[in-house]
Design goal:
Blueprint (H helix, E strand, L loop, with lengths): L5 E10 L12 E10 L2 E7 L15 E5 L6 E8 L11 E9 H7 L1 E9 L2 E15 L3 E10 L12 E8 L5 E6 L14 E4 H5 L7 E7 L7 E8 L1 H7 L5 E3 L3 H6 L8 E11 L3 H6 L3 E9 L23 H13 L7 E7 L1 E2 L7 E2 L2 E2 L8 E3 H12 L4 E2 L6 H14 L7 E9 L6 H11 L4 E7 L6 H6 L19 E5 L8 H9 L2 H12 L12
Parallel strand pairs: 17-18, 17-24, 24-25, 25-26
Antiparallel strand pairs: 1-4, 1-8, 2-3, 2-5, 5-6, 7-8, 9-12, 9-16, 10-11, 10-13, 13-14, 15-16, 18-21, 18-22, 19-20, 19-23
Length: 533
């Protein structure tokens, strides 16, 4: 693909969506997909899901690289979210719009009817997408609280949240951020959040902003408590909580001469920060350390049988090797020495074949499990396969804990110099699920991402629980995952797609996961680029 001309941010809203839920409106989410050829699509990004709305405005922007010389076929697909997994196959499809990125950027704003299939209208619903070029690496970091908000609920206090809008060039208001809901509280404090300056105010510190405070109602439309107008500059001048904004309900203001406000919103902190990208960290010297773990449990079948997932076809490949080649050839470019540790699990080893091993060096050299490049891992795999006795159970936690200990050691330098990626290739359900989720929750505080590729026809439901895009994964003691670090993809979805499609899908979240870790630690690139404005 040609060099990226620019990065583009897409703002999406919908109107008049189908209602799939009994007794309430749908809970929509929008997914951005890019064509990889034919009927194959790979996911690039997704918005948050908005509860109980047939005409949602999504605050989560969708970022995509724009290539002038290439036709970039995109699909914006809308789903009604019915569960907590990230697998959209379990959710109701509300329709999609197919268009090219060129059409979007040349029109700036496009509205299209949603279709259930190409040429088959959904019967209801439209999607509007607006494009904006990203030219600024600054961001607004903002922390807000409120005092004395109006009580809106009959049997309790209000459940307040904020929505922040910027005024577009045509005068319309565009949603740029929605806070979390604080339950049953008239003086709430919302979590600190960061929004790119381009998103927040189009990098114009004097552009009009509107902040609306709502009382969340699960069954009906949320009630307005009040609102106020300001600019990014006014928020920045407020800095450390010196400024309060009256939260005004327009109707109450008209009716009551003595009306003062429906509460006040205070700026606890507001500052401009530099928002570094994945490339800023990589070009600043961050090394990505790649480790592979391969499943040799008995459920794969006897490698000598053509029915086995480990069986070598006449071309010398199988699903395990195809997945390894696809992902490894991309990742290896970010590691200068190209020496990658490779492990197997779930097999009995020579010479005694007595005990199943859940973390053994693929080259049978425990003191140096590194292989030279992806080719070295493939050679080690082919050499070791005839010597193993496939066994079980399918335990993930030993290899995750092993790589996590290495990642933990790299944090001692307190610099953004090292990040680890663990690729697990497996055919079945996790036997030690509780230990594995504990390991994942602990690893979410380390410079580590975990890619799981499911090989074969098994039901991989448990894998979806680890792929916590909605942040619900918790340890057995109730500790919440610090950030999303797991990406799961079933290989069968890409068996007929180009090899690059699998790599694009499984690696799509790595850049954001790397950035989120270093941002969480407050670590700038080793050699940070100069700020741009």
């Amino acid at each position: 693909m040609a060099d990226c001309v620019s990065k583009v941010e897409l703002c999406v809203s919908c109107s008049d969506l189908l209602d799939k839920d009994v007794g309430s409106k749908s809970d929509p989410l929008c997914v951005l997909l890019q064509s990889t050829g034919g009927d194959n699509w790979t996911e690039l990004a997704r918005t948050e899901h908005v509860q109980n709305s047939s005409s949602p405005s999504f605050s989560q922007r969708l970022r995509v690289d724009y290539h002038f010389e290439t036709v970039q076929n995109l699909k914006l697909a809308v789903y009604d979210i019915d569960n907590k997994t990230s697998d959209l196959r379990d959710d109701d499809f509300l329709g999609a719009a197919e268009l090219t990125l060129g059409q979007i950027v040349s029109s700036k704003t496009l509205t299209r009817p949603l279709q259930l299939k190409k040429g088959k209208p959904a019967g209801k619903g439209t999607l509007t997408v607006t494009a904006e070029e990203i030219k600024d690496n600054r961001a607004v970091q903002l922390e807000l609280e409120a005092k004395g908000l109006d009580k809106k609920d009959l049997f309790g206090k209000s459940d307040p949240f904020l929505e922040i809008f910027k005024q577009g060039d045509g005068g319309s208001w565009q949603l740029v951020h929605r806070t979390e809901v604080v339950k049953n509280n008239l003086s709430p404090s919302w979590k600190k959040f960061t929004v790119p300056l381009q998103t927040f105010c189009s990098s114009d510190l004097e552009r009009p902003l509107k902040v609306v405070c709502y009382d969340k109602d699960e069954d009906t439309s949320s009630d307005v408590i009040g609102q106020f107008s300001c600019s990014a500059n006014q928020l920045l001048q407020a800095g450390g909580g010196a400024v309060e904004f009256d939260c005004i309900h327009p109707e109450k203001q008209k009716k009551k001469k003595s009306y003062k406000n429906s509460g006040v919103v205070c700026v606890k902190s507001c500052k401009l920060v530099t928002q570094y990208t994945f490339l800023d960290y990589v070009m600043g010297g961050c090394q990505i350390n790649f480790t592979v773990g391969i499943d040799f449990t008995g459920s794969n079948g006897d490698p000598r049988s053509p029915n086995s997932l480990h069986y070598m076809s006449p071309d010398g490949l199988n699903q395990y090797l195809s997945a390894l080649w696809s992902v490894g050839q991309v990742v290896q470019d970010y590691d200068t020495d190209k020496f990658f540790p490779a492990f197997g699990f779930g097999a009995k080893l020579p010479p005694d074949y007595q005990v199943a091993h859940h973390e053994f060096a693929l080259n049978f050299n425990p003191s140096n499990p590194h292989c030279q490049g992806v080719e070295g891992i493939v050679q080690a795999y082919r050499a070791v396969l005839p010597q193993l006795r496939l066994s079980g159970p399918t335990n993930f936690s030993p290899i995750i804990n092993h790589v996590a200990s290495i990642a933990s050691a790299t944090t001692q330098s307190n610099t953004a110099a090292q990040y680890s990626v663990l690729l697990i290739l497996t055919d079945g359900e996790i036997t030690d699920f509780d230990q594995t989720r504990d390991a994942v929750v602990r690893a979410s505080r380390l410079p580590l991402s975990i890619i799981i590729v499911g090989v074969g026809p098994a039901d991989f439901k448990a894998m979806e629980l680890l792929d916590g895009d909605d942040g619900v994964l918790r340890s057995t003691t109730g500790e919440a995952i610090a950030r999303d670090i797991v990406q799961f993809v079933p290989y069968r979805e890409f068996s007929d797609a180009p090899r690059a499609a699998l790599a694009q899908s499984v690696l799509a979240e790595i850049p954001n996961q790397l950035v989120s870790y270093f941002k969480m630690r407050g670590l700038d690139p080793v050699k940070p680029p100069a700020p741009t404005a």
